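In the design runs reported in the main text, the only information available to the sequence generator was the tokenized backbone. The following block is the verbatim input for one such run; it is reproduced so that readers can re-run the procedure and compare outputs position by position.
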């Protein structure tokens, strides 16, 4: 790669790294994994930088590399993982409602398959159109729509399940308090 190309890539990373890290953070729940994901995607992109004719499309190319890398990681995960009906409560350090909502959403996103999660992230967080999402993921617009519909339905189910579980906890706590007071 020519020296000018290297400098161009370095400048691109310098100006876009915060936005790219936010995208990576939305694709994987752990902040350290998000940094690893971005770093891996940048290394892979660097090797092909001179092949990207229109550098205005570099963000889309890099997002696609991140999604593919995350999918590779997901497929290679240890099969010792056991799916469970109930996820553990997420610990929330910040008491603001916005932070709590974001933490809950990031936790709930874990129930989605990687393909569904990618569609939700690109459509709702990255605010890409259906067509842009389809192009980024290499699928048809109809597939994006149906995948998004199923993913949002799954998220609703998970949130309702958590709400029912939380309501049941409050009733038990109230009954215990009343029993202790009597």
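Verbatim output:
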């Amino acid at each position: 790669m020519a020296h000018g190309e290297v400098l161009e890539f370095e400048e691109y990373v310098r100006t876009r790294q915060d936005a790219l890290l936010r995208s990576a953070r939305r694709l994987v729940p752990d902040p350290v994994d998000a940094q690893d994901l971005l770093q891996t995607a940048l290394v892979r992109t660097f090797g092909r930088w001179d092949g990207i004719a229109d550098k205005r499309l570099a963000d889309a190319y890099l997002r696609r590399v991140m999604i593919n890398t995350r999918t590779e990681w997901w497929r290679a995960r240890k099969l010792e993982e056991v799916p469970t009906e109930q996820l553990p409560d997420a610990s929330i350090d910040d008491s603001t409602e916005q932070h709590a909502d974001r933490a809950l959403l990031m936790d709930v996103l874990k129930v989605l398959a990687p393909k569904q999660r990618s569609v939700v992230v690109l459509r709702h967080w990255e605010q890409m159109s259906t067509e842009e999402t389809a192009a980024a993921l290499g699928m048809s617009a109809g597939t994006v729509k149906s995948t998004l519909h199923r993913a949002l339905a799954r998220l609703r189910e998970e949130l309702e399940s958590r709400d029912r579980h939380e309501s049941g906890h409050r009733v038990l706590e109230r009954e215990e308090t009343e029993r202790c007071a009597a």
